Amino acid sequence: IFTRLFVWDVNLSRDLRGDDKIDLVYRTGDDGFPSIAGARLHSQKYGKTFTAFRWKAPSDTYPSYWMIDGTETNYRLNNSPIRKFEQITSLLKDGRGHKGMDWKAPVGTPTYAPKTAKVTRVNFGNFRYNGNCVELEYSDGTLAKYLHLEKVSVKAGQTVRVGDQVGLVGNTGRSTAPHLHYQLDKGRKVLDPAKYHGTYRRKIRDADLVDFLSDIGPIINA
Fold first, then answer.
1. Is 57:72 a contact under the CB 8 Å cutoff?
2. Where are the alpha helices (DSSP H) in 69-221?
3. 13 close to 94: Cβ distance less than 8 angstroms
4. Are 148 and 180 in contact (CB under 8 A)?
5. pTM higher than 0.70 for the full model?
6. Helix (H) or strand (E) holding 161
7. How many Å apart are CA 206 and CA 218, to the nearest integer?
8. Using CA atoms, how far apart are residues 82 and 65, in angstroms rounded to an integer?
9. pLDDT band at 4 (very low <50, low <70, confident <90, very high)
């Protein structure tokens, strides 16, 4: 869980130094899994401290992690295939050899077409691995795969426009928890969704920043 907080800024397999320091504030939930309330990584390589504090912005459905200056720790995709999610759990660059980008979200969360595309295949390949799935072809020939869906909302041969629903997040196939696996292939090359779509980072609104700093105050001083 900790590595997900800083993976956008730090390569934890290469950038850590012997004098680096990690501070964590967490609690174990009823499900037995730890929930990190706040974390700091004091990096010798970068000469700075990276911070992450769990906080739910008033307009958000789920809490996210934010730096102490109010910047969200993770980047978001422009024209993302999913709008509401709990956490980004896998990236191409996180060192796991994963071929897609994963978003943790409850079963039934809608997924969307980021751009106009043709539906090339539905429920293809090995169901034990892919589960319910959809493949879209973008105008540049890139194939976008949506895996582990609970329900498919489109048919092969159909044209979808930006914002059309593709399917619902599920936990089918080779999946240990509900999430969307979004993979981009062009020929034999696997593309990084972050580079393909472009990214941005949100900031907490000025009107909410005082509440944020007040709420994380006990964590900072823990």
1. no
2. 127-130, 193-197, 206-220
3. no
4. yes
5. yes
6. none
7. 21
8. 18
9. confident
